[in-house]
Amino acid sequence: MHAPRSAATTPATLMSGSDYRESLRRRRPTVYVDGRRVESVADEPSLAPGVNALAYTYDFARDPKFAPVALATQASRGKVVNRMLHVNESAGDLLNKLEAVRLLCQETGCAQRYLAHDALNGLAQVSARIDDARGTTEHRARFAAFLARVQDEDLSLGIAMTDAKGDRSKRPHQQANPDTYVHVVERNGKGIVISGTKAIVTGAPYMHELLVMPSRNMGPEDADFAVCCAVPVDAPGLTIVARPAGRPGEKLEHGSALFSRKYGQSTAVVIFDQVFVPWERVFYAGEWEHSSTLTYSYATHHRHSCIAARAGFGDLLIGAGALMCEANGFDPGEKSQLREPMVELIKITEGFYACGVAASVYGTQDPYYGNFMPEPVFSNIGKLLLATQIYDMHRLAHEVSGGLIVALPGPDEDHNPATAATLSEVLRANPSVPYDKRIEVARFIEDLTASYQGGWYSVISLHGGGSPAAMKQEIWRNYPVGSKVELVERLLQRGVLHDETRAITKNRQPGRCCDQGCTVPGQPVMVEMPTLRPPSGGSTAA
At residue 167, what are phi and psi to the nearest 5 degrees? Predict the structure, then answer.
Protein backbone atom coordinates (compact mmCIF):
# COMPACT_ATOMS: atom_id res chain seq x y z
CA MET A 1 0.00 0.00 0.00
CA HIS A 2 1.50 3.32 -0.94
CA ALA A 3 0.45 6.91 -1.46
CA PRO A 4 0.28 8.10 -5.06
CA ARG A 5 3.06 10.50 -6.00
CA SER A 6 2.08 13.95 -7.20
CA ALA A 7 3.72 15.75 -10.11
CA ALA A 8 5.40 18.10 -7.62
CA THR A 9 7.08 15.30 -5.71
CA THR A 10 10.83 15.68 -5.24
CA PRO A 11 12.74 12.47 -6.06
CA ALA A 12 14.51 10.65 -3.29
CA THR A 13 18.15 11.38 -2.51
CA LEU A 14 19.39 7.96 -1.51
CA MET A 15 22.79 6.58 -0.65
CA SER A 16 23.95 3.27 -2.07
CA GLY A 17 25.52 0.60 0.10
CA SER A 18 28.94 1.82 -1.05
CA ASP A 19 28.03 5.42 -0.22
CA TYR A 20 26.99 4.28 3.23
CA ARG A 21 30.34 2.58 3.83
CA GLU A 22 32.17 5.72 2.75
CA SER A 23 30.00 7.82 5.08
CA LEU A 24 31.13 5.62 7.99
CA ARG A 25 34.77 6.19 7.06
CA ARG A 26 34.26 9.94 7.42
CA ARG A 27 33.27 9.50 11.07
CA ARG A 28 35.61 8.74 13.95
CA PRO A 29 33.54 7.26 16.79
CA THR A 30 35.23 5.82 19.86
CA VAL A 31 34.38 2.13 19.51
CA TYR A 32 35.74 -0.87 21.41
CA VAL A 33 35.15 -4.49 20.38
CA ASP A 34 36.63 -7.45 22.26
CA GLY A 35 38.78 -5.13 24.35
CA ARG A 36 40.46 -3.23 21.52
CA ARG A 37 39.88 0.14 19.84
CA VAL A 38 38.39 0.03 16.35
CA GLU A 39 40.04 2.46 13.95
CA SER A 40 37.56 2.25 11.07
CA VAL A 41 34.09 0.80 11.65
CA ALA A 42 33.51 0.31 7.91
CA ASP A 43 36.66 -1.80 7.59
CA GLU A 44 36.51 -3.72 10.88
CA PRO A 45 36.08 -7.49 10.23
CA SER A 46 34.29 -8.09 13.54
CA LEU A 47 31.59 -5.57 12.55
CA ALA A 48 31.39 -6.48 8.85
CA PRO A 49 28.16 -8.54 9.07
CA GLY A 50 26.37 -5.58 10.69
CA VAL A 51 27.72 -3.10 8.15
CA ASN A 52 26.66 -5.54 5.38
CA ALA A 53 23.12 -5.67 6.75
CA LEU A 54 22.80 -1.87 6.83
CA ALA A 55 24.41 -1.55 3.39
CA TYR A 56 21.78 -3.93 2.03
CA THR A 57 18.98 -1.65 3.27
CA TYR A 58 20.46 1.16 1.17
CA ASP A 59 20.75 -0.92 -2.01
CA PHE A 60 17.26 -2.33 -1.38
CA ALA A 61 15.76 1.17 -1.43
CA ARG A 62 17.44 1.93 -4.79
CA ASP A 63 16.19 -1.24 -6.47
CA PRO A 64 13.23 -0.30 -8.75
CA LYS A 65 11.41 -3.56 -8.14
CA PHE A 66 11.19 -2.82 -4.42
CA ALA A 67 10.23 0.86 -4.83
CA PRO A 68 6.50 0.46 -4.00
CA VAL A 69 7.34 -0.60 -0.45
CA ALA A 70 10.94 0.59 -0.02
CA LEU A 71 10.12 4.24 -0.72
CA ALA A 72 7.44 6.56 0.61
CA THR A 73 6.24 10.08 -0.12
CA GLN A 74 6.39 12.43 2.87
CA ALA A 75 3.45 14.56 1.77
CA SER A 76 4.23 17.38 4.20
CA ARG A 77 7.46 17.97 2.24
CA GLY A 78 6.49 16.58 -1.16
CA LYS A 79 9.59 14.40 -0.89
CA VAL A 80 10.18 10.75 -1.72
CA VAL A 81 12.19 9.22 1.12
CA ASN A 82 13.48 5.90 2.36
CA ARG A 83 10.65 3.95 4.00
CA MET A 84 12.84 3.40 7.07
CA LEU A 85 12.85 7.19 7.66
CA HIS A 86 9.20 7.87 6.88
CA VAL A 87 6.54 9.18 9.24
CA ASN A 88 3.36 7.21 8.46
CA GLU A 89 0.54 9.14 6.81
CA SER A 90 -1.97 6.32 6.36
CA ALA A 91 -2.80 2.77 7.37
CA GLY A 92 -1.34 1.86 3.99
CA ASP A 93 2.03 3.20 5.11
CA LEU A 94 1.90 0.82 8.07
CA LEU A 95 1.25 -2.11 5.74
CA ASN A 96 4.05 -1.10 3.41
CA LYS A 97 6.49 -0.70 6.27
CA LEU A 98 5.53 -4.17 7.46
CA GLU A 99 6.18 -5.67 4.02
CA ALA A 100 9.44 -3.76 3.55
CA VAL A 101 10.82 -4.94 6.88
CA ARG A 102 9.86 -8.54 6.13
CA LEU A 103 11.64 -8.43 2.76
CA LEU A 104 14.73 -6.84 4.32
CA CYS A 105 14.90 -9.49 7.03
CA GLN A 106 14.44 -12.34 4.58
CA GLU A 107 17.83 -11.30 3.24
CA THR A 108 19.63 -10.14 6.40
CA GLY A 109 17.93 -11.92 9.31
CA CYS A 110 17.62 -8.57 11.09
CA ALA A 111 17.84 -5.33 9.08
CA GLN A 112 18.13 -3.14 12.22
CA ARG A 113 17.49 0.14 10.41
CA TYR A 114 13.72 -0.06 10.92
CA LEU A 115 14.20 1.07 14.54
CA ALA A 116 14.77 4.58 13.15
CA HIS A 117 11.30 4.53 11.56
CA ASP A 118 9.74 3.52 14.87
CA ALA A 119 11.56 6.18 16.87
CA LEU A 120 10.82 8.97 14.38
CA ASN A 121 7.11 8.19 14.50
CA GLY A 122 7.09 8.14 18.31
CA LEU A 123 9.12 11.34 18.43
CA ALA A 124 6.68 13.07 16.06
CA GLN A 125 3.81 12.22 18.39
CA VAL A 126 5.46 13.41 21.61
CA SER A 127 6.71 16.64 20.00
CA ALA A 128 3.17 17.55 18.94
CA ARG A 129 1.76 16.73 22.38
CA ILE A 130 4.29 18.89 24.20
CA ASP A 131 3.47 21.83 21.94
CA ASP A 132 -0.26 21.24 22.40
CA ALA A 133 0.14 21.24 26.19
CA ARG A 134 2.21 24.43 26.11
CA GLY A 135 0.49 26.29 23.30
CA THR A 136 3.74 26.50 21.34
CA THR A 137 5.13 25.29 18.01
CA GLU A 138 8.78 24.98 19.05
CA HIS A 139 8.98 21.21 19.50
CA ARG A 140 7.22 20.36 16.24
CA ALA A 141 9.46 22.77 14.35
CA ARG A 142 12.61 21.29 15.88
CA PHE A 143 11.47 17.77 15.02
CA ALA A 144 10.51 18.81 11.47
CA ALA A 145 13.99 20.26 10.87
CA PHE A 146 15.64 17.12 12.22
CA LEU A 147 13.40 14.82 10.16
CA ALA A 148 14.13 16.77 6.97
CA ARG A 149 17.89 16.53 7.54
CA VAL A 150 17.77 12.80 8.34
CA GLN A 151 15.65 12.07 5.27
CA ASP A 152 17.66 14.30 2.92
CA GLU A 153 20.98 12.82 4.06
CA ASP A 154 19.51 9.28 4.21
CA LEU A 155 21.03 8.64 7.63
CA SER A 156 20.97 5.54 9.81
CA LEU A 157 19.85 6.20 13.37
CA GLY A 158 20.63 4.04 16.39
CA ILE A 159 18.10 4.10 19.20
CA ALA A 160 19.66 4.63 22.62
CA MET A 161 16.64 3.93 24.79
CA THR A 162 17.35 1.17 27.32
CA ASP A 163 19.31 2.56 30.28
CA ALA A 164 21.72 0.49 32.34
CA LYS A 165 19.07 0.97 35.10
CA GLY A 166 21.15 0.00 38.15
CA ASP A 167 18.95 -1.25 41.00
CA ARG A 168 15.69 -2.18 39.25
CA SER A 169 13.69 -1.63 42.44
CA LYS A 170 14.58 2.07 42.49
CA ARG A 171 13.57 4.98 40.26
CA PRO A 172 16.20 6.93 38.32
CA HIS A 173 16.64 9.70 40.90
CA GLN A 174 17.05 7.09 43.67
CA GLN A 175 20.05 5.32 42.12
CA ALA A 176 23.31 5.33 44.08
CA ASN A 177 25.08 5.94 40.77
CA PRO A 178 23.06 8.40 38.67
CA ASP A 179 25.04 7.39 35.56
CA THR A 180 23.08 4.15 35.35
CA TYR A 181 20.54 6.40 33.57
CA VAL A 182 21.32 9.10 31.01
CA HIS A 183 20.52 12.48 32.54
CA VAL A 184 21.05 16.21 32.10
CA VAL A 185 23.96 17.53 34.16
CA GLU A 186 24.04 21.08 32.80
CA ARG A 187 21.89 23.54 30.83
CA ASN A 188 23.09 26.75 29.24
CA GLY A 189 22.20 29.10 26.43
CA LYS A 190 23.81 26.86 23.81
CA GLY A 191 22.41 23.48 24.84
CA ILE A 192 22.59 20.73 27.42
CA VAL A 193 25.27 18.40 28.74
CA ILE A 194 24.33 14.76 29.35
CA SER A 195 26.00 11.87 31.16
CA GLY A 196 25.00 8.26 31.83
CA THR A 197 24.78 4.87 30.17
CA LYS A 198 22.53 3.30 27.58
CA ALA A 199 22.62 -0.49 27.14
CA ILE A 200 21.53 -2.77 24.28
CA VAL A 201 21.86 -0.13 21.56
CA THR A 202 21.29 -2.00 18.30
CA GLY A 203 23.91 -1.42 15.61
CA ALA A 204 25.47 1.49 17.53
CA PRO A 205 29.00 1.31 16.02
CA TYR A 206 27.83 1.60 12.42
CA MET A 207 25.07 4.20 12.78
CA HIS A 208 25.43 7.88 11.88
CA GLU A 209 23.64 9.28 14.91
CA LEU A 210 22.04 8.05 18.10
CA LEU A 211 18.56 9.08 19.21
CA VAL A 212 18.63 9.25 23.02
CA MET A 213 15.21 8.54 24.52
CA PRO A 214 13.94 7.78 28.05
CA SER A 215 13.33 4.12 28.80
CA ARG A 216 10.46 4.46 31.25
CA ASN A 217 7.79 6.66 32.72
CA MET A 218 9.23 9.46 34.85
CA GLY A 219 8.03 11.31 37.93
CA PRO A 220 8.72 14.96 38.83
CA GLU A 221 11.81 13.93 40.81
CA ASP A 222 13.16 12.29 37.64
CA ALA A 223 12.97 15.44 35.51
CA ASP A 224 16.73 15.46 34.79
CA PHE A 225 16.43 11.90 33.44
CA ALA A 226 13.60 12.83 31.06
CA VAL A 227 15.75 13.77 28.09
CA CYS A 228 15.39 13.12 24.37
CA CYS A 229 18.01 14.31 21.89
CA ALA A 230 20.10 13.39 18.84
CA VAL A 231 23.85 12.84 19.18
CA PRO A 232 26.39 12.07 16.42
CA VAL A 233 28.18 8.77 17.05
CA ASP A 234 31.52 10.55 17.12
CA ALA A 235 30.50 13.30 19.55
CA PRO A 236 33.24 14.09 22.11
CA GLY A 237 32.69 12.18 25.34
CA LEU A 238 30.71 9.34 23.73
CA THR A 239 32.16 5.80 23.97
CA ILE A 240 30.67 2.70 22.34
CA VAL A 241 31.52 -0.70 23.82
CA ALA A 242 30.22 -3.26 21.33
CA ARG A 243 30.03 -6.97 20.72
CA PRO A 244 30.94 -8.41 17.30
CA ALA A 245 28.20 -8.60 14.69
CA GLY A 246 27.34 -12.15 13.68
CA ARG A 247 30.20 -14.66 13.56
CA PRO A 248 32.75 -13.30 11.08
CA GLY A 249 35.93 -15.31 10.64
CA GLU A 250 35.12 -17.70 13.48
CA LYS A 251 36.62 -21.19 13.25
CA LEU A 252 33.60 -23.29 14.00
CA GLU A 253 33.12 -27.00 14.54
CA HIS A 254 31.20 -27.26 11.29
CA GLY A 255 33.02 -24.55 9.36
CA SER A 256 32.37 -20.91 8.62
CA ALA A 257 28.87 -19.76 9.45
CA LEU A 258 27.01 -19.72 6.13
CA PHE A 259 24.67 -16.90 7.13
CA SER A 260 26.02 -15.05 10.16
CA ARG A 261 29.50 -14.56 8.71
CA LYS A 262 27.76 -12.35 6.13
CA TYR A 263 24.91 -10.72 8.04
CA GLY A 264 24.66 -10.04 11.75
CA GLN A 265 23.90 -7.48 14.40
CA SER A 266 26.12 -5.77 16.92
CA THR A 267 24.68 -4.45 20.15
CA ALA A 268 26.50 -2.01 22.38
CA VAL A 269 26.70 -0.28 25.70
CA VAL A 270 27.03 3.46 25.06
CA ILE A 271 28.65 5.64 27.70
CA PHE A 272 27.95 9.39 27.71
CA ASP A 273 30.56 11.38 29.64
CA GLN A 274 29.72 15.09 29.68
CA VAL A 275 28.43 15.04 26.09
CA PHE A 276 27.31 18.46 24.83
CA VAL A 277 24.10 18.60 22.76
CA PRO A 278 23.06 21.90 21.10
CA TRP A 279 19.44 22.98 21.58
CA GLU A 280 18.51 22.34 17.95
CA ARG A 281 19.19 18.64 18.63
CA VAL A 282 17.24 18.55 21.91
CA PHE A 283 13.62 17.45 21.55
CA TYR A 284 12.89 17.79 25.24
CA ALA A 285 14.79 18.00 28.49
CA GLY A 286 12.91 17.92 31.77
CA GLU A 287 9.37 17.34 30.48
CA TRP A 288 8.98 14.25 32.64
CA GLU A 289 5.21 14.05 32.21
CA HIS A 290 5.62 13.30 28.48
CA SER A 291 8.04 10.39 28.78
CA SER A 292 5.18 7.91 28.99
CA THR A 293 3.87 9.13 25.62
CA LEU A 294 7.22 8.59 23.93
CA THR A 295 7.93 5.18 25.47
CA TYR A 296 4.41 3.93 24.68
CA SER A 297 4.37 5.29 21.12
CA TYR A 298 7.83 3.99 20.26
CA ALA A 299 7.14 0.58 21.81
CA THR A 300 3.94 0.16 19.80
CA HIS A 301 5.58 1.14 16.51
CA HIS A 302 8.60 -1.02 17.26
CA ARG A 303 6.66 -4.14 18.25
CA HIS A 304 4.74 -3.78 15.00
CA SER A 305 8.05 -3.73 13.10
CA CYS A 306 9.44 -6.68 15.08
CA ILE A 307 6.53 -8.78 13.81
CA ALA A 308 7.70 -8.26 10.24
CA ALA A 309 11.35 -8.81 11.11
CA ARG A 310 10.75 -12.21 12.65
CA ALA A 311 8.37 -13.15 9.84
CA GLY A 312 11.32 -12.67 7.51
CA PHE A 313 13.39 -14.91 9.75
CA GLY A 314 10.53 -17.44 9.76
CA ASP A 315 10.59 -17.44 5.97
CA LEU A 316 14.23 -18.55 6.11
CA LEU A 317 13.36 -21.44 8.45
CA ILE A 318 10.40 -22.52 6.32
CA GLY A 319 12.47 -22.55 3.13
CA ALA A 320 15.43 -24.30 4.75
CA GLY A 321 13.16 -26.86 6.43
CA ALA A 322 11.52 -27.75 3.11
CA LEU A 323 14.92 -28.06 1.43
CA MET A 324 16.13 -30.34 4.20
CA CYS A 325 13.08 -32.60 3.83
CA GLU A 326 13.77 -32.87 0.11
CA ALA A 327 17.48 -33.56 0.66
CA ASN A 328 16.57 -36.31 3.12
CA GLY A 329 14.40 -37.98 0.46
CA PHE A 330 10.95 -36.97 1.74
CA ASP A 331 8.04 -34.97 0.37
CA PRO A 332 6.30 -33.23 3.31
CA GLY A 333 3.07 -33.28 1.31
CA GLU A 334 3.17 -37.08 1.39
CA LYS A 335 4.72 -37.58 4.84
CA SER A 336 2.39 -36.47 7.62
CA GLN A 337 5.07 -36.51 10.32
CA LEU A 338 6.93 -33.87 8.30
CA ARG A 339 3.91 -32.03 6.92
CA GLU A 340 2.50 -31.35 10.38
CA PRO A 341 5.59 -29.61 11.80
CA MET A 342 6.04 -27.69 8.55
CA VAL A 343 2.44 -26.48 8.71
CA GLU A 344 2.95 -25.60 12.38
CA LEU A 345 6.00 -23.51 11.44
CA ILE A 346 3.97 -21.78 8.72
CA LYS A 347 1.07 -21.23 11.13
CA ILE A 348 3.31 -19.58 13.72
CA THR A 349 5.03 -17.30 11.21
CA GLU A 350 1.94 -16.22 9.32
CA GLY A 351 -0.11 -16.10 12.54
CA PHE A 352 1.93 -13.38 14.18
CA TYR A 353 2.41 -11.62 10.84
CA ALA A 354 -1.39 -11.53 10.44
CA CYS A 355 -1.51 -9.64 13.75
CA GLY A 356 0.81 -7.07 12.16
CA VAL A 357 -1.51 -6.76 9.17
CA ALA A 358 -4.51 -6.32 11.48
CA ALA A 359 -2.62 -3.71 13.52
CA SER A 360 -1.98 -1.84 10.26
CA VAL A 361 -5.54 -2.04 8.96
CA TYR A 362 -6.94 -0.88 12.30
CA GLY A 363 -4.22 1.75 12.72
CA THR A 364 -5.41 5.12 13.97
CA GLN A 365 -4.36 8.69 13.29
CA ASP A 366 -2.61 10.47 16.13
CA PRO A 367 -4.87 13.39 17.16
CA TYR A 368 -1.91 15.74 17.71
CA TYR A 369 0.67 15.08 15.01
CA GLY A 370 -1.54 13.29 12.48
CA ASN A 371 0.69 10.30 11.75
CA PHE A 372 -0.69 6.78 11.90
CA MET A 373 -0.14 4.46 14.85
CA PRO A 374 -0.53 0.65 14.70
CA GLU A 375 -3.44 -0.71 16.73
CA PRO A 376 -1.81 -1.55 20.10
CA VAL A 377 -3.61 -4.80 20.98
CA PHE A 378 -2.79 -6.54 17.70
CA SER A 379 0.75 -5.12 17.76
CA ASN A 380 1.40 -6.47 21.24
CA ILE A 381 -0.27 -9.83 20.58
CA GLY A 382 1.83 -10.32 17.45
CA LYS A 383 5.03 -9.42 19.29
CA LEU A 384 4.10 -11.64 22.25
CA LEU A 385 3.44 -14.59 19.91
CA LEU A 386 6.79 -14.30 18.16
CA ALA A 387 8.64 -13.69 21.43
CA THR A 388 7.34 -16.83 23.06
CA GLN A 389 7.18 -19.02 19.95
CA ILE A 390 10.66 -18.34 18.57
CA TYR A 391 11.83 -21.40 20.50
CA ASP A 392 9.07 -23.48 18.89
CA MET A 393 10.17 -22.21 15.48
CA HIS A 394 13.69 -23.49 16.16
CA ARG A 395 12.34 -26.80 17.48
CA LEU A 396 10.16 -27.34 14.42
CA ALA A 397 13.07 -26.62 12.07
CA HIS A 398 15.08 -29.21 13.99
CA GLU A 399 12.23 -31.71 13.88
CA VAL A 400 11.90 -31.65 10.10
CA SER A 401 15.66 -31.56 9.51
CA GLY A 402 16.87 -34.50 11.57
CA GLY A 403 19.96 -34.72 13.76
CA LEU A 404 22.44 -34.25 10.96
CA ILE A 405 22.47 -30.47 11.52
CA VAL A 406 24.58 -30.90 14.66
CA ALA A 407 26.22 -34.27 13.91
CA LEU A 408 27.69 -33.71 10.48
CA PRO A 409 31.47 -33.61 9.99
CA GLY A 410 33.28 -30.31 9.53
CA PRO A 411 33.91 -28.94 6.03
CA ASP A 412 37.61 -29.80 6.18
CA GLU A 413 36.56 -33.40 5.70
CA ASP A 414 35.03 -32.45 2.35
CA HIS A 415 38.58 -32.04 1.07
CA ASN A 416 40.26 -34.85 3.00
CA PRO A 417 41.32 -37.54 0.49
CA ALA A 418 41.01 -40.18 3.20
CA THR A 419 37.34 -39.42 3.96
CA ALA A 420 35.74 -37.17 1.35
CA ALA A 421 34.70 -39.85 -1.15
CA THR A 422 33.16 -42.09 1.50
CA LEU A 423 31.30 -39.26 3.22
CA SER A 424 29.86 -37.97 -0.06
CA GLU A 425 28.44 -41.42 -0.70
CA VAL A 426 27.14 -42.46 2.71
CA LEU A 427 25.78 -39.03 3.73
CA ARG A 428 23.80 -38.59 0.55
CA ALA A 429 20.09 -39.33 0.89
CA ASN A 430 17.90 -38.19 -2.01
CA PRO A 431 19.70 -39.34 -5.19
CA SER A 432 18.70 -36.13 -6.96
CA VAL A 433 20.27 -33.90 -4.27
CA PRO A 434 24.08 -33.94 -4.24
CA TYR A 435 25.88 -34.51 -0.95
CA ASP A 436 27.29 -30.98 -0.82
CA LYS A 437 23.84 -29.41 -1.27
CA ARG A 438 22.36 -31.49 1.55
CA ILE A 439 25.20 -30.62 3.89
CA GLU A 440 25.03 -26.94 2.96
CA VAL A 441 21.38 -26.69 4.02
CA ALA A 442 22.11 -28.58 7.24
CA ARG A 443 24.89 -26.14 8.11
CA PHE A 444 22.63 -23.20 7.25
CA ILE A 445 19.94 -24.42 9.68
CA GLU A 446 22.59 -25.07 12.31
CA ASP A 447 23.80 -21.48 11.97
CA LEU A 448 20.29 -20.05 12.34
CA THR A 449 19.02 -22.25 15.17
CA ALA A 450 21.66 -24.40 16.91
CA SER A 451 24.58 -22.02 17.31
CA TYR A 452 25.62 -18.98 19.29
CA GLN A 453 23.79 -16.91 16.69
CA GLY A 454 20.68 -19.05 17.00
CA GLY A 455 20.63 -18.50 20.76
CA TRP A 456 21.11 -14.78 20.19
CA TYR A 457 18.08 -14.67 17.87
CA SER A 458 16.02 -16.37 20.59
CA VAL A 459 16.97 -13.91 23.33
CA ILE A 460 16.61 -10.81 21.17
CA SER A 461 13.19 -12.04 19.99
CA LEU A 462 12.09 -12.62 23.57
CA HIS A 463 13.27 -9.33 25.07
CA GLY A 464 13.73 -7.00 22.10
CA GLY A 465 11.08 -4.29 22.18
CA GLY A 466 10.21 -5.11 25.79
CA SER A 467 9.65 -8.22 27.86
CA PRO A 468 6.60 -10.49 27.46
CA ALA A 469 5.31 -9.06 30.74
CA ALA A 470 5.29 -5.57 29.23
CA MET A 471 3.33 -6.79 26.21
CA LYS A 472 0.78 -8.57 28.39
CA GLN A 473 0.32 -5.39 30.39
CA GLU A 474 -0.36 -3.39 27.22
CA ILE A 475 -2.78 -6.01 25.88
CA TRP A 476 -4.79 -5.94 29.11
CA ARG A 477 -4.63 -2.13 29.32
CA ASN A 478 -5.94 -1.65 25.77
CA TYR A 479 -8.20 -4.65 25.21
CA PRO A 480 -11.94 -3.81 25.41
CA VAL A 481 -12.85 -6.36 28.10
CA GLY A 482 -15.69 -4.02 29.12
CA SER A 483 -17.38 -4.43 25.75
CA LYS A 484 -17.32 -8.22 26.13
CA VAL A 485 -18.71 -8.02 29.68
CA GLU A 486 -21.53 -5.72 28.60
CA LEU A 487 -22.28 -8.00 25.63
CA VAL A 488 -22.88 -10.94 27.96
CA GLU A 489 -24.86 -8.82 30.43
CA ARG A 490 -27.10 -7.64 27.58
CA LEU A 491 -27.71 -11.23 26.45
CA LEU A 492 -28.53 -12.15 30.04
CA GLN A 493 -30.95 -9.19 30.08
CA ARG A 494 -29.45 -7.78 33.25
CA GLY A 495 -30.13 -4.19 32.25
CA VAL A 496 -26.92 -3.01 33.91
CA LEU A 497 -25.90 0.57 33.09
CA HIS A 498 -22.29 1.30 32.25
CA ASP A 499 -20.33 2.29 35.35
CA GLU A 500 -17.07 4.16 34.74
CA THR A 501 -15.75 3.11 38.18
CA ARG A 502 -16.27 -0.60 37.58
CA ALA A 503 -12.86 -2.19 37.02
CA ILE A 504 -13.74 -4.84 34.43
CA THR A 505 -15.82 -2.53 32.22
CA LYS A 506 -13.50 0.48 31.99
CA ASN A 507 -12.18 -0.47 28.56
CA ARG A 508 -14.75 -0.50 25.80
CA GLN A 509 -14.32 -0.88 22.07
CA PRO A 510 -15.34 1.98 19.79
CA GLY A 511 -17.05 1.29 16.49
CA ARG A 512 -14.77 -0.01 13.77
CA CYS A 513 -16.64 1.48 10.81
CA CYS A 514 -18.13 4.76 9.58
CA ASP A 515 -20.87 6.11 7.30
CA GLN A 516 -18.66 6.11 4.21
CA GLY A 517 -17.65 2.46 4.61
CA CYS A 518 -14.28 0.82 4.95
CA THR A 519 -12.69 2.22 1.81
CA VAL A 520 -12.35 5.99 1.83
CA PRO A 521 -12.06 7.54 -1.65
CA GLY A 522 -8.39 8.03 -2.48
CA GLN A 523 -7.22 5.68 0.26
CA PRO A 524 -4.02 3.83 -0.76
CA VAL A 525 -4.46 0.16 -1.58
CA MET A 526 -2.13 -2.81 -1.50
CA VAL A 527 0.13 -3.14 -4.52
CA GLU A 528 1.31 -6.41 -5.99
CA MET A 529 5.05 -7.01 -5.73
CA PRO A 530 6.84 -8.88 -8.54
CA THR A 531 7.83 -12.49 -8.04
CA LEU A 532 11.33 -12.34 -6.60
CA ARG A 533 13.97 -14.84 -7.64
CA PRO A 534 17.55 -14.99 -6.42
CA PRO A 535 20.04 -13.55 -8.90
CA SER A 536 22.09 -16.06 -10.84
CA GLY A 537 25.26 -16.93 -9.02
CA GLY A 538 23.80 -16.09 -5.61
CA SER A 539 23.41 -12.79 -3.82
CA THR A 540 25.61 -9.90 -4.87
CA ALA A 541 25.34 -8.09 -1.54
CA ALA A 542 28.64 -7.38 0.17
Answer: -75, 110
